[in-house]
Specification:
heterodimer; A: 161 residues; mainly alpha; B: mainly alpha
């Protein structure tokens, strides 16, 4: 546990425990970033599956920067929240599950981005839907993100026990 | 505190939610999933109102709004149940009051959208710019919902 103890003694870690507003502000940013990331990814998944079909398929390309903003906000705020208690959070199974789900979810999104309809997205018809691989990944993605939000929420309950 | 707050705390529903081991965490998870659908969906529509993603016609993005309304409905139901379960905690809480004020203002902003912005939105095809009023309504919507999330998240910290 040498590394985690060293983390625990960094200035940012101490700040996250001792300042009045550091933790609540990071937590608030984490909820806003979650709304953007999970919300936009879910709607993207639904569009790939054929819901909201009036939205032109090539336009979906413009959603990735919005998703990236949500992810970066949560990477920064999440790192700060983690630093508030590095050693205990890794022992929290809900936290470990959540971290794995988040990165698997991002991996699924990147793989989906490399499927044929996305690689060639500017030439897709407005009413196109994802090919079978993209549609499968979209369903997996929806399940993963709901599970990630659930395990994130449980993280708070388990460390409180 | 008004008497009705104590009366709510004494209802069977209040006790049922508060005494259950699983209802609260389950509802909180639903509240977060609802938040994502609401905020993510509105953010896409609002960004287009503000003039981003111009290659997508606005009226096609506005089809997402019913999903955001569904997210809001989930959150209104779970939110009311949170309040019923613990009314003496929420009623005096300043972050909770700020959150309710932001929801009220977001509702008025939506009314302005329905009356003034939506009737002209049909015309905004691919590449079309949006008028200043639409940009303002979109920005106000994003800021007010950020205010709602902020107020909600701060409830435990201002007790």
């Amino acid at each position: 546990m040498g590394f985690l103890e060293a983390l625990n003694n960094t200035g940012l870690s101490i700040y996250m425990r001792e300042s009045l507003w550091g933790y609540p502000i990071a937590l608030t940013c984490h909820a806003i970033g979650m709304g953007l990331l999970v919300g936009v990814v879910s709607i993207l998944d639904l569009r790939v599956l054929g819901v909201f079909r009036t939205i032109p398929y090539p336009g979906l390309n413009k959603w990735f920067p919005v998703i990236l903003v949500g992810f970066l906000v949560n990477l920064c705020s999440g790192t700060m929240l983690y630093l508030s208690d590095p050693a205990n959070l890794v022992k929290n199974w809900a936290f470990d599950v959540k971290i794995v789900l988040v990165f698997v979810g991002l991996g699924v999104l990147l793989v989906m981005k490399s499927t044929p309809t996305f690689k060639n997205i500017q030439n897709q018809e407005a009413s196109a839907i994802g090919d079978s691989s993209a549609r499968t990944l979209a369903i997996v993605s929806l399940i993963i993100w709901i599970a990630a939000v659930t395990s994130g929420r449980l993280t708070g309950y388990i460390s409180a026990v | 505190m008004p008497q009705i707050i104590y009366d709510i705390a004494n209802t069977w529903l209040s006790h049922a939610v508060k005494d259950s081991y699983w209802i609260w965490p389950t509802m909180e998870t639903m509240h977060f999933v609802g938040l994502s659908l609401l905020f993510g969906g509105l953010a896409l529509a609002d960004l287009r109102l503000m003039g981003y993603m111009k290659n997508i016609p606005y009226y096609t993005l506005s089809k997402i709004i019913p999903l955001a309304v569904a997210g809001f409905t989930v959150n209104a139901i779970t939110g009311v149940l949170f309040f019923i379960a613990d009314p003496t905690r929420y009623y005096p809480n300043l972050a909770f009051r700020f959150k309710m004020l932001c929801i009220l203002l977001a509702g008025l902003n939506l009314l302005l959208y329905q009356i003034k912005v939506k009737p002209m939105a049909e015309k905004w095809g691919a590449g079309a710019s949006t008028p200043l009023l639409a940009k303002c309504v979109g920005l106000a919507s994003i800021l007010l919902w950020i205010g709602v999330i902020t107020g909600g998240r701060l409830i435990p910290f201002v007790e």
